[in-house]
Specification:
The chain is an alpha+beta fold. The chain has a domain of about 55 residues: Multidrug-efflux Transporter Regulator, Chain: A, Domain 2 (Orthogonal Bundle). Helices cover about 30% and strands about 10% of the residues. It has a 3-stranded antiparallel β-sheet with strand order 1-3-2. A hairpin with a 4-residue loop joins strand 2 and strand 3. The longest helix has 10 residues. It is globular and about 45 Å long. The mean pLDDT is about 85.
């Protein structure tokens, strides 16, 4: 019998892709890039040079989610959120 892991289970010793991190946080992939470039608390990542991909340590994802995800709202022309 094959057991499947829940999508929100992250193991600290493994590395994860942008799509997997987005599923874990419950956000879109584009929001992960915003978290990487966040001026106050950026999301740490590893750049895999052979493929040019970004990967994340499971322990970093767990710690980032525990510290609280940055709030990002829609930008509107009149300045009201």
């Amino acid at each position: 019998m094959v057991t499947r892991r829940f999508i929100n289970e992250i193991e600290p010793e493994q590395t994860y892709s942008i799509s997997r991190a987005a599923c874990y946080f419950g956000v879109h992939r584009c929001t992960i890039y915003a978290y990487i470039n966040h001026p106050v608390c950026p999301l740490p990542f590893i750049k895999v040079t052979e493929k040019g991909k970004l990967m994340f340590n499971g322990s970093d994802l767990i710690a980032y989610k525990a510290s609280g995800l940055p709030k990002r709202g829609r930008k509107r022309k009149n300045g009201i959120s």
